[in-house]
Every structure is written in structure tokens, then in C-alpha cells.
Amino acid sequence: MKYLLVIVMGLLSISISIPIYAQTKTASLSASPIVTNVATPTAVLVEKEIQNLKDRIATKVAELRKKNTKAITGVVTDRAGATINMENNDGDQYKVQVDDTLTKLYLISGSTKKEIKLDYIKKGVYLIVTGPIIENNINANFIYQDEQYIALSGKVTEVNSEEESIKVFTTEKENFTFDIEETTKMQLLDPKTLELETIRISKVKEGDTLHFVTKKTGAEKEKNRYTPQRILIIPQEYFIK
Question: What's the pTM?
Fold first, then answer.
């Protein structure tokens, strides 16, 4: 009887273990698709993170370019191919790189603006250049060829009526010599009526205050010697009323 009981118990244990084995096997088979399904969103997330990183880098580069975009002015000292060498009023040297596709060049004449070619730019012309700048190198976005004007004031230190010239010491502590020609418009402020009258050089005296506007062409024979477009004289009497 005990022997029969052992046999029955053994059969029961086998019958119970069989479904358990089948369940384990079924569970392992269903695990593969779950792993596959999880891998897909993970890859998408990684791709999104990479794209976000690229976007942040691109944004940062754009910000840096915008931050480093500046405007410089100066006179052309030389041009070799697509490189323009410039010098500003302080004597600083710049190399301007011109890109055939990206750089736009314009000629400013009065209130008009027209597009020009690189060959139009010659030594001695005055340029305004904008673009990203690193040290003294600038990749030009826009180049404007314009006329350079100087507008300053100072005290008359010498009047030469025979040579029709006036020497002035400016508020910037520079000496200028002006050759007066027919194209020069000279006016004097009447200290009593405060009206302007057109004059000749004979009415200018040492010690008078002189305001001037002159064009800088780059072809001057002497430094700071110009033929001004306009001169306004304020006589000494105006200040000692």
C-alpha cells in the first residue's frame, strides 16, 4: 500500500511539473518581442538627443557669429584677388575676405546705392565693411564704397591770404592746412545779428573758431591738407560780448 502511494505521488508530481515547464517556455518565447519593442523608442530618443545637440551647437555658432559681427571703416591699401587690405584712421590694418557667393558690394553715391563688382574697388577708396571678425581678419558680408568726410573744429593759427590757405589746430589736437578754392563755401557768424554771411579769406583772423567739413580722397599730397567743402567761422568777438 505504501508502495502504491509512492507511485501515485510520483505521477502527481510529474503531472504538476509539466504545465509549469510549459508556462516557463511560453514566457521565454514571449520575451523576445518585448525586448524588440523597447529598443525602438530608445533609438528614437537617442536620435532626438543627437539632433537636439546639433541644434544647440548650430544656435551657439549663430550667436557667436552674430556677436562677432562688426563694422570697420578704412582706406584700401592693396587688393590681391579676393583679399582687400585696409587701414583705418588709427593705423590699424585689416584683411577683408570676399566670398563670390556671399559677399555683397555696393557703391554709395549721395542717397543712392548700386551693386558693384570686386574689380571696381581700387587702392585709396574708402570702405565700410561688415561681417564676422577675428582679430584683424574679417569675412565680409557687406562692403560699401563711400566717400569719407572729416568734420571737426578748432582755432585758426595762421591765415595766408596770398596762398589762400588757413592753418587750424583742432580740438583733437591735430594740425590741418586748408587750401581755399572757389568750390569752398565760407560763412561767418555775425556776433551781433547771429546771421550767417558768405565771406572771403580776408575776413578770417587768427584766434577765430573754425568748423569745417572736408572730403578725404586718399590722394592728398600732404597729411591733413585738404580743400574743404564748407567752412564756418565764429569770430573771437562772439565769445567776448
Answer: 0.57
The CATH code belonging to domain 148-240 is 2.40.50.320
The CATH number of domain 68-146, selected from 3.20.20.140, 2.40.50.140, 2.60.40.1180, 3.30.565.10: 2.40.50.140
Cβ atoms 150, 216 nearer than 8 A: yes
Please name the residues in contact with 186: beta carbons below 8 A apart, sequence gap of 6 or more: 180, 198, 199, 200, 201, 204, 230, 231, 232, 233
Q: Where in the chain is the domain with CATH 2.40.50.140?
A: 68-146
| Grid coordinates belonging to 14 | 510529474
d(CA 128, CA 105): 10
Mean pLDDT per 10-residue section of the chain, whose length is 241 residues? 46 45 43 49 66 65 61 92 92 94 90 91 91 91 90 95 96 94 95 93 96 85 91 92 65
